[in-house]
Specification:
single chain, 244 residues, alpha+beta, Glutaredoxin, Glutathione S-transferase Yfyf (Class Pi), Chain A, domain 2, 2 domains, 4-stranded mixed beta sheet, 50% helix, binds glutathione, GST_UstS-like_C, Glutathione_S-Trfase_N, Thioredoxin-like_sf
Length: 244
């Protein structure tokens, strides 16, 4: 049995890089705590059967999928699926340094950043073709177009103008700014000020997903991202160095 944690993640096109926002929550958490781990890459087309074979409980009915990444295998052979459940387990097993779990803050961060994601998911969908691994690409296009009720041609039409969607996303970005200003106890780029906490990772990782996916798509977003969010994103960069 491996003495290291194994983090299951989605591969990308070459050079292989981590890009899923949900997996980044766990990757940042591991890097933040300095816990040794290695990544195993599972493509979408084998994800359900592979994670199921670990014996974890599926997500409840109505979830995005039954099985998902991030999933982690701890050195004692325990598997945990779902970024929030993994965060709790990491905080329990490796309490120092603490990322100060706070369900109320995490819910607020998730709510605000979730609105940004929903506003930008459709206009930025064509950029996903720059990152999704080639073996997954056809599956991904068909799956996402179906989920968003569109044809593949419309969902992945690169000539669509994304700017009106960014303008429509402004209230969601403003909500992020409000949340990021509301809880500071001192000066600093994080939600609480100078001290990072796990709720910060909800804000950071959606941007990180776009950052990892497409230079052009990311540059577009950054034109609309408020300074509070930009500062937080930059302050978290030190936990993005290990990606494998
Ligand atoms: N609530 C889960 C959501 C994880 C999730 O949806 N992961 C996506 C990748 S970003 C996934 O595994 N999707 C599998 C699929 O679409 O079949 C978490 O926070 O870990």
């Amino acid at each position: 049995m491996s003495q290291e944690i194994i983090l299951y993640d989605l591969p990308s096109q070459a050079p292989c890089r981590s890009w899923s926002g949900n997996v980044w929550k766990t990757r940042l958490a591991l890097n933040f705590k300095g816990v040794p781990y290695k990544t195993e890459w599972i493509p979408y087309i084998r994800l359900q059967e592979t994670i199921k074979s670990f014996g974890v409980e599926p997500h409840p009915p109505g979830s995005w999928s039954e099985f998902s990444v991030p999933t982690v295998r701890f050195p004692d052979g325990t598997y945990v699926m779902d970024s929030a459940a993994i965060a709790k387990e990491l905080e329990y097993r490796y309490p120092s340094p603490s990322f100060r779990l706070n369900p109320k803050l995490e819910e607020e961060a998730h709510g605000a950043m979730g609105k940004v994601f929903m506003a930008l998911a459709v206009p930025l969908m064509p950029y996903a073709t720059e990152v999704v691994s080639l073996e997954d690409l056809e599956w991904f296009k068909t799956d996402r177009a179906r989920r968003f009720g569109m044809t593949v041609e419309v969902a992945f039409d690169k000539s669509k103008d994304p700017v009106p969607h960014f303008v429509a996303a402004k209230p969601a970005f403003e909500e992020c700014s409000r949340v990021l200003k509301a809880h500071k106890v001192d000066e600093g780029p994080f939600l609480l000020g100078s001290q990072p906490c796990y709720a910060d990772f909800y804000f950071m990782t959606t941007l990180q997903m776009f950052h990892q996916s497409s230079k052009e798509g990311f540059a577009l977003i950054m034109e609309y991202v408020p300074s509070e969010l930009k500062n937080l994103f930059e302050a978290c960069q030190k936990w993005t160095i290990k990606q494998d």
